[in-house]
Amino acid sequence: MESESFYGVTLSEKEPIAQFDVPEIPEEYIVHSHKLIIKQISLGPEAKSGEFNVVQAETNVHDDGEKKTVKIPIAVLKVGETRSLRPNVEFPNGSVTFKLVQGTGPVYVCGKAEMNLGEYDDGQMYEEYSDDEDDSELELDDDCSPQTNGKSIKKK
Predict the structure, then answer these.
(1) Containing domain of residue 78, as a range?
(2) Is residue 75 part of a domain?
(3) DSSP characters over 123-147
(4) Cβ neighbours around 91 below 10 Å, total
(5) In a domain, 125, yes or no
(6) pLDDT tens digit string along 73-97?
(7) Is residue 144 part of a domain?
(8) 88 class by beta-carbon count within 10 Å (0-12 exposed, 13-18 middle, 19+ buried)
(9) Which alpha helices (H) appear in the chain, and where do they start and end?
């Protein structure tokens, strides 16, 4: 079962931090994948002229079996130059903190949260689909010509 939902937050001088957490899932379901996709980041109409507004994302990543926190700017906005971005940034399987690290905003961050749920684990799902066919043998057609990437090959 797949599920999508809208995600949106406003970052400002008064509220510079917003947290996205993976929602609670009923025990009978197993989360196969979950991700937050940021589709648009934009300045509000009351943003100050000449002021840079920098949005930072903070999330945890696994590197060589070690859990690390990564902080990276995902948007730099300025009235008269860049009022809106469409970054299409994905944050898989975890929480994300958005922070207005420079500027007074308001900055609007919006996107969608996608979740793929199942009622059984991946091992059971793999067994269900792999019992019927054996993909170890591939049949090749000896009569087919090789791919030429649009170039013609002259035979002599």
Answers:
(1) 2-117
(2) yes
(3) HHHHHHHHSS--TT-----TTPPPP
(4) 20
(5) no
(6) 999 999 989 999 999 999 886 789 9
(7) no
(8) exposed
(9) 122-130
Q: Which amino acid is present at 69?
A: T
Q: Report CA-CA distances (Å) from 149 to 59, 126, 152.
A: 42, 36, 9
> Where residue 20 sits, what CATH number does that domain have?
2.60.120.340
In the predicted structure, residue 132 carries a pLDDT above the cut 90: no
Half-sphere exposure at residue 46, Cβ-oriented, CA atoms within 13 angstroms: 7
Specify the pTM: 0.68
State how far the Cα of 84 lies from the Cα of 101, in Å rounded to an integer: 17
- The pLDDT of residue 31: 56
Model pLDDT, residue 28: 61
| Model confidence pLDDT, tens digit, residues 96-113 | 999 999 999 999 999 998
Residue 14 resides in a domain: yes
Helix (H) or strand (E) segment spanning residue 46: none
- Give Rg (Cα) of the chain: 23
* Residues facing residue 114 across a β-bridge: 4, 35
Q: How many CB atoms lie within 10 A of CB 112?
A: 14
